[in-house]
Design a protein that fits this description.
Distance between the termini: 32 Å
CATH class: Alpha Beta
Order of helices and strands: HEHEHHH
CATH topology: Rossmann fold
Shape: globular
Number of helices: 5
Strand order of the largest sheet: 1-2
CATH architecture: 3-Layer(aba) Sandwich
Radius of gyration: 15 Å
Number of strands: 2
Largest sheet: 2 strands, parallel
Structural class: mainly alpha
Number of domains: 1
């Protein structure tokens, strides 16, 4: 993750309108470093980039296979595809952090 490849991120933003990071870590990891860079570099200022970090939720998981745990964490390919489809479809509201926190409360 460090040093962050800033040139690659700029290139991805120039070529794409959606950027998703996926990691086996929790909030505060790679996705947050990318978001911090995007913000400080002004790459979010025009409102054309949709960025979502996918991370492990802050909850306990039962023992299981890696596949089962990724399913519980919603980090497998069907979940990634669903998030991408939601971001592509302008009429679909993508959940924001506040909504996710409210569900857990």
């Amino acid at each position: 993750m460090k040093p962050l490849d800033q040139d690659l991120i700029r290139e991805l933003v120039d070529d794409h309108s959606i950027l998703i990071t996926i990691e086996e870590g929790s909030v505060g990891g790679f996705g947050d470093h990318v978001l911090h860079f995007l913000s400080n570099d002004g790459l979010l200022d025009d409102g054309n980039l949709k960025f979502r970090p996918m991370v492990l939720p802050d909850e306990l998981f039962e023992a299981g296979t890696q596949q089962e745990q990724y399913d519980m964490a919603k980090l497998n390919h069907p979940h990634i595809a669903e998030l991408l489809q939601n971001l592509i479809n302008k009429n679909t509201k993508v959940p924001v952090l506040e909504e996710q926190v409210a569900k857990q409360a």
